[in-house]
Amino acid sequence: MGRGKLRIHLGAAPGVGKTYAMLAEAHRRTERGTDCVVAFVETHGRTRTEALLTGLERVPYRRLERDGVTVAEMDLDAVLARRPRVALVDELAHTNAPGSRNAKRWQDVEELLAAGIDVLSTVGIQHLESLGDTVESITGVREPETVPDEVVRRADQVELVDMTPEALRRRMAHGNIHQPDQVDAALSSYFRPGNLAALRELALLWVADRVDAHLQRYRSEHAVSAIWGSRERIVVGLTGGPEGRTLIRRAARLAEKGAGGQLLAVYISRSDGLTSASPGELAAQRTLVEDLGGSFHHVVGDDIPAALLDFARGANATQIVLGSSRRRTWQYVFGPGVGATVARDCGPDLDVHIVTHEEAATGRGLPVARGAPLGRLRLAWGWAAGTAGPVVLAALLSAVDPGLALDMLMFLAVTVAAALLGGLWPALASAAVGSLLLNFLYTPPLHTWSVSDPRNIVAIVVFVAVGASVASVVDLAARRTQQAARLRAESEILSFLAGNVLRGETGLENLLERVRETFGMESAALLERAGDVEPWTCAGRVGRGRPVKRPEDADVEVPVGDHMALALTGRVPPAEDRRVLAAFAAQAAVVLDRRRLREQADQALALAEGNRIRTALLAAVSHDLRTPLAGIKAAVSSLRSEDVEWSDEDRAELLEGIEDGADRLNHLVGNLLDMSRLHTGTVTPLMRGTDLDEVVPRALGGVPQDSVVLDVPETLPMVDADPGLLERAMANVVENAVKYSPPGEKVLVAASALADRVEVRVVDRGPGVPDEAKERIFAPFQRHGDAPRGAGVGLGLAVARGFAEAMGGTLNADDTPGGGLTMTLTLHAADARPEDGPDDRGRGRVAAENGSGPVAAENERRAS
């Protein structure tokens, strides 16, 4: 038996109706025939809640002494021994009395779920462990009893029980929550309107986060790229400059104003590693983002506006926050800037906020003090200073005559500035131009290229040497900084890969998406082939770039062994990136191997199950099919015998035995074939709108007359089903119920509509089935109790459930109140009644009238 399902009714405050909603759900399930018991419910003396306990079976509570007072606790062992289908356990965060098996009630619930028992429970938002401090700051009350958030998040269903603060205060004033002598104190403290509104917001946001997780998983599984503005997601673009903290705080305020707003900070670096960002400032901004509840992302991309927009759309963001440009007015001649480009290309789905700050329009200072590597703008300034600087300086010095020594110092200063700005080559150009000007303008003989004084030659040589030395030092420092930044980025990526290995994560598409995002590619694919001459096949692919059928067609190919390669499209990355790409490729190969090993393990389990089925099938064929064949053979041999004169009564009895044996063979062979089709996955239902009042009566052809009471209203909505499969499933279930019903007791077949579903219940008064055997009776070749071997091969219910699941429905077994078993077939109601052609209905009638009940109907449908 599998793990039970947990449904939690979550409320914002005491008295919103969590327990009431749980009990109402229990009554709904009980009316459908589900076995529900009250394991523990605390009514707090509320009369309407206590009234709902009427009609529900209760498991007696345990009585324990706690601080000299007798307290009632859930009797976990008694509930496990009772083994209901559904257990009601109130107040999930409750602390059990000393002497209990578990310290917390949610731990008791875990045992019930592990035993296959479904649980309905309740919890208040104030009891969630992560919200304890927040609730205390709102209400001034610290909740001593908490439940881990993960326990609630793992629930199969979380239903929010909501009520406005005004309605809740009215309930309190009317005495529906606390005793009359406690009402005034509660209304003036915990139940103040502001407190209740804040708690309600917490509950709504918590449930919204859970819904958002499901939405993100859906978008990922269905490759949805369009922005769905279901909640506010604020992306703030960072440059690593000091204005980043202002942008983060402004974006956080925007996120707080939206419904369940989320903050995402992104820093985009160039693929060549050249950046003027301060690592220390980025680390501080990352910490600030995390402190404000956001997430920090590092993305590589040469086109910063495009990379920022791609990230925002991939994150389903609704707003982008950018800072005002630090450029001066004249610097806009080099382009419109990141903010203007993003605002122009964002489209109608994204809003862009340009935030002013203290660094706006102040110009970009030299990043030398931050140890940043050289950038393209800095190189341009370096070449301008190296080539035009000496000429401008010579023109300025022509008005005065400070002397050769001072002239050389001034030219050396220009060379050093060119080195600081542009590195080695601009500084060498400045030294060359400066030395030529010094020789031509300031060394005798003037205005000639010759030097008369040897000391001036030495001075010029020293001047060039000093300029070259300074330039080489600056260039070396810039290269070392660039290498350090690249190695840091590589270490972060390799740390991510190592973490994946340690955590055992096996998502190939997730890993490929990380490669694509990290290196700013359009698409990433893992290709493989069986041999050197075999064609390439795609094992996994992400992105929207052009499809790649061979590694040679990609912009970059990273081989993994002889017959596997990582193929990327979008751009050609620098050679330094191939080392990290090789690590990604190796990890992708490991993930693929791990996934295939898991698939092989699943196939091995399926093969073992198939072997078990075949073994049981052989046993069934050797015994259960032999019995009717032997009976038919004996009857035919007797009729053909010339030594005996048979009377008309004896002859009729022998013929009846032959007919019964043939019917049994037909039924057994039909179930064996159906089980084989289910096992091999070849059942393909032809779904259409189907009337139950037409199909269900035809399914009763294989049972004696007057053994079934039929209650299928004509007003029921049509169900979305395959008529042939539905008839066969109902026939097997009804025949099983008639077989185990006591003599004189009729089987009830009733149908009813519930929301968007229709339930068909087959109720018998037989011996019933214990809870531990309710799932086992649906396994192939299983008989319950002391059923004789001649009763069949044990496939009827297995085939019925297989057909029900093939049609998108369910078939479950529950106890019949008063004794017996109730089989419930649940199907989806059809959205609209289709126009049925006369041929479809005609085929069903011919099959029912001329064939042998459901078997003929099924064969006729397959033949058509």
UniProtKB/TrEMBL annotation:
Its EC number is 2.7.13.3. The keyword Kinase applies. It is an enzyme of class 2 (transferase). Keywords: Kinase, Transferase. This is Two-component system sensor histidine kinase KdpD.
